[in-house]
Design goal:
The complex is a heterodimer. Chain A is 41% helix and 32% strand. Chain A is α/β, with parallel strands linked by helices. Chain A has a single domain, classed as STAS domain (Transcription Regulator spoIIAA). In chain A, a hairpin with a 2-residue loop joins strand 1 and strand 2. The longest helix of chain A is centred in the middle third of the chain and has 16 residues. By secondary structure, chain B is α+β, with helices and mostly antiparallel strands. Chain B has a single domain, classed as Heat Shock Protein 90 (2-Layer Sandwich). Chain B contains three helices and six strands. Chain B has a six-stranded antiparallel sheet, with helices on one face. In chain B, strand 5 and strand 6 form a beta hairpin. The chains are: A alpha/beta, B alpha+beta. Chains A and B meet through helix 2 and helix 3 of A and helix 2 and helix 3 of B.
Chain lengths: 111, 142
């Protein structure tokens, strides 16, 4: 699991790649999102295009990050869901919770 | 790992580090059986979720307790049994992750996913102690 953070204006884009599974993967997402918040970032996009595997704990971590960011007055949006992540979010009714985008530009301008 | 005709058994300690190994074995078996890529993915995830539960919630990460995974392969279906040495639970006591009050909870979706992707799932407390999850995926549902 690897996460690279870049910024476009005041939007923080977290490019995630690899596996978001219980342990190392979920901790990486949690710690990176917390670091962004700690440094004052309020607009966060998780780019999941290169996430080739996610388990229920990974889905749980997306939810957890969403609530953490929201509770601190920020916004977290999802970009480039794979078909499998989309299916996992859909059947647990989480697509109704997250703002999801296929285009980075649209995700950035949605804030 | 023990293999006999049509049966593969794997026994692991209660450590999350073994999850990738279990998943690898599962992927090999589903590919060998001819499941397509999507079905293999969802079967692998279901087994992983079940073993995660057994390690974490069943055996409570107690390294002295084992999780046993048995795969029974037939031309019609794959049966997977995951057994832990924990206290067990009542499936009817588990809250639904789809209830509005649970939607934003960080956990509680694993069994829901298993039930979504496998053709049947049964939970049983063993008389010797521990919990057994029996999952079936039929080849025809591939």
């Amino acid at each position: 699991m690897k996460i690279e953070t870049r910024t476009v204006g005041d939007v923080h884009i977290l490019d995630c790649s690899g596996k978001i599974t219980l342990g190392e993967g979920t901790m990486a997402v949690r710690n990176t999102v917390r670091d962004v918040l700690k440094n004052g970032g309020k607009k966060i996009i998780l780019n999941l295009a290169d996430v080739n595997y996610i388990d229920s704990s990974g889905i749980g971590e997306l939810v957890s990050s969403y609530t953490t960011v929201t509770n601190q007055g920020g916004k977290l949006k999802l970009l480039n869901l794979t078909k499998k992540i989309q299916e996992l979010l859909a059947i647990t009714k989480l697509l109704t919770v997250f703002s999801v985008y296929d285009s980075e530009q649209q995700a950035i301008s949605s804030f | 790992m023990v293999t006999t005709e049509n049966t593969i058994e794997v026994s692991i300690g209660s450590a999350l580090e073994y999850l990738d190994l279990v998943q690898l074995v599962t992927d090999c078996i589903t590919r060998f059986m001819g499941f397509d890529e999507d079905s293999s993915h969802w079967i692998g995830m279901s087994v992983r979720e079940s073993v995660t539960n057994a390690i974490q919630h069943g055996n409570k990460l107690d390294q002295s307790k084992k999780v046993e995974i048995r795969f029974e392969v037939s031309p019609e279906q794959l049966d997977v049994y995951v057994t832990d040495q924990g206290n067990g639970f009542r499936i009817e006591d588990l809250p639904s992750p789809l209830d509005p009050e649970n939607l934003l909870k960080p956990s509680g979706r694993g069994i829901f996913y298993i039930r979504s992707f496998m053709d049947s799932v049964e939970f049983r407390r063993l008389s010797r102690g521990g919990m057994e999850v029996h999952m079936v995926k039929r080849v025809s549902s591939n």
